[in-house]
Design goal:
The protein is globular, with a radius of gyration of 12 Å. It is 39% helix and 30% strand. By secondary structure, it is an alpha+beta fold. The protein has three helices and five strands, in the order βααββββα. Strand 3 and strand 4 form a beta hairpin. Strands 1-5-4-3-2 form a five-stranded mixed sheet.
Length: 97
Amino acid sequence: MAHEFIINKSGARSAKKLFKKHPELEKDFRAVVKLLRTNPFPPGYKKLSGVDNAYRIAFGGDYRLIYSFDAGVLVLTLVLVADRKDVYEQLKKNLGW
């Protein structure tokens, strides 16, 4: 089943900020996004505990892409891209997760 793929404002902003510091990560990021466009649960994804419909996938070693997937309406939303040491703190601070 095909699903819609959305990058929300915080996802776009965090990706832009990351690529400004680490342009070499953009290729890995694009590969993960390509996977997510065809499969919302690719190899290596993990469910985030305590949050409904929220998942993460690693890329570029120490970086995480956080996304939500609503199977009821088939929409995958990229929420945040950050270093693994900061990503969960940013989720709590900026998104209230």
